[in-house]
Give the backbone structure.
Amino acid sequence: MTGDKLAAGILTSAGVSVVAAIVLAMASGGLNSTLAGCALSAGSVGGVWIFYRTDSRMPQRPNPWDFLLFALFTIASLRAFLWLIYSVGDEWRILSPYNLGDISLHIQFIRYFASGVDFWPASPILTGVPLSYPLGADLWNSLLLLVGVPVERGLIWTALAGAGLTAWALWRWGGAFAMAALLFNGGLAGFAILRTGQLQDFQSELAWKNMFLTMVVTQRGLLYALPCGLILLRAWRDDFFRDGSGLPRSLQFFLYATMPFFSVHAFLFLSLALAAIFIFTPRARIPLVLFVALAVVPATAAMWLVTGGFSAASGLRWLPGWMQADAGWKFWIINFGVSLPLLFWLFWRCAWRGDAESRAFTLLSLGVFLLCFLVAFAPWEWDNTKLLIWAWLAAAPFLWTRVLGPLAPIPRASLCAALFFSGAVSLLAGLDASHGYQLAKRSELAAAAKVLQNVPAGTRIAVEPRFNHPVILLGYPVVCGYDGHLWSHGLAYQDSLAKLRSVLRKDLGWRDTAKELGAEWIYLQGQTPLLQKIDESGRRD
């Protein structure tokens, strides 16, 4: 048994389970425990089938640096995800401040999907619009919830499995250097520890933050998309430039065509990777045309669903300089340090002395970097990092083999230290045991659950738009959720928010306004929560 076979089987199982759940839920009007069991069973069958169909090839032999990076990745993952969400007394806490808003949204989605709502579901965070979000990772946890796995435990188990698969896929793609590239990306900010003597995440206020903390920990879809995307990049590299990958084409097709359900940005980058291979490898053009032609219909259908029928605003706009604002050239030095000069050095070497493989992947990586520095792809410009992470990781093995690896030991070690020291400081500070942030009080959630026990699942409720409101964390759809979620998802929510404020203040005609917003109940937080039906006088529970 090899890691490749096991990784392929696990990812297939998760992907097939999610796709089967979507099909079953759309056919039946919603999910239940029976359908969840059927979807997970279908995923298990698919995973076993792919496991035995994947070629059992011997991977490269690990060296001491590989073992070290595996150990560091394991320690970081255990610290980040065993404390992903945990209880202390009456509180549910999380380890990372980056994750306060994200995990509350994921918990709402998980419980919302598991409640049996109609599919394709309406958005649970804004009235009157369809869900426009890659729901795959949250739907997977909904399936676990429906078969008896508590939300908190399912989140932790899934995260640990995803982290393990990501570490393996990174190593198979680019060895220890690729794992370090994800754990320790950074610029110059972290060198401030040498001046201050204080351990803190000096990159937290920068654009180029530590990707493990800000993306792997917070973006649940990446726990599937990262290992899948890296496995696909390696398969395409080995199939079109080397002696073959052993990964079945059927699995490559499935992972690529269904990727939008988990990460639109990963799907976009993989599509650009296919285009780069097409340009630089003439013998691959016919197979690639056939591959993409077959994937057009399912991938477009997936994109249509996760964008609400292509109704979601993209936020696409011209933004030269990305997030530099008035910082000028200092922005690039402080954020990226030697990273960008090394990438340009890599591009120059491959352009003049490289082969088709290195040219395809380095041109792809540098092109995506430049594109993200000129164009914003979402309302929040920082979301460009969801593409930049792929460009950085795709370039990592070539940065090592073409630029850093051939250097003498001292300059090589010096450049690696300059490349990774700041990110290592950020990672250590971000996983510091002194952290812990309150997400919610367990007593408030219990009180809210009692008040809402007779309210049918899927009923839209008017609540104060806080990211950690008990009604939201219990999975009920709300009239207008947290504005940070709404804005970053490109939803036009301002009018609904103004009307919600009017309802919560109980302005003249508030009942009519509430009905206009599709709310059946209004929930007012306090020492004793007040739940009031819109067409009744109200009651206190």
